[in-house]
Amino acid sequence: MNMAEAINVCFVKYATFSGRARRSEYWWFSLFTFILYILFSLIGREMNTSISFLEIAWIVAFFVPSYAVAFRRLHDINLSGWWILLPLASGVPLWFGSDILNASPGSMPGFAFLGLGVVFIVLPIVWLAWPGTKGANRFGPDPLRPDLAEGVSDRT
């Protein structure tokens, strides 16, 4: 799948949180949205605004399909899509960790909380990069081999 195909699929499945998505679908769409965000931000900065209309338009246009493709991507590795929200929970251990470290520098609980917060951020990124399960899983057929209803595919 190339970038154009990924963009097309993600907009066709704009709010589809069921099924599975290939790695290429997720990463090409993520690259596309990242590039657009940078462009919109640069244009907004040239207009001397703290947040531009273009950045708000980007958020409105890409929030739902970005989470939808991430849900489908996690489904491809046979995980619930809700795990993509794990980075949102990272604020709690990061806040507690920094608060504990400010109160007593070098404390182990502070470092443990900070480490947990980092894991909450990094783990979903690792999952999004993992190859999908071969063959059908509980979320649907293999997106690389949809012709196989179940069983192991012979991907090369």
Please trace the helix and strand order, writing H or E for each element: HHHHH
Total separate domains: 2
Distance between the termini: 15 Å
By DSSP, the count of extended strands is 0
Number of helices: 5
| Percent in helix | 55-70%
Strand content: under 5%
- Mean pLDDT equals 85
Please tell me about this protein's structure.
The model is unreliable at 151-156 (pLDDT under 50). The chain has 156 residues and is an all-alpha fold. The longest helix has 24 residues, at 23-46. α2 runs antiparallel to α3 and α4 (91-103) packs antiparallel against α5 (108-129). It has helices at 3-12, 23-46, 53-76, 91-103, 108-129. It is 60% helix and 0% strand.
Quick description:
This protein is an all-alpha fold and 156 residues long.
Features:
156 residues; mainly alpha; 5 helices; 60% helix; disordered C terminus
What's the topology here?
Elements (H helix, E strand, L loop, with lengths): L2 H10 L10 H24 L6 H24 L14 H13 L4 H22 L27
Helix pairs in contact: 1-2, 2-3, 4-5
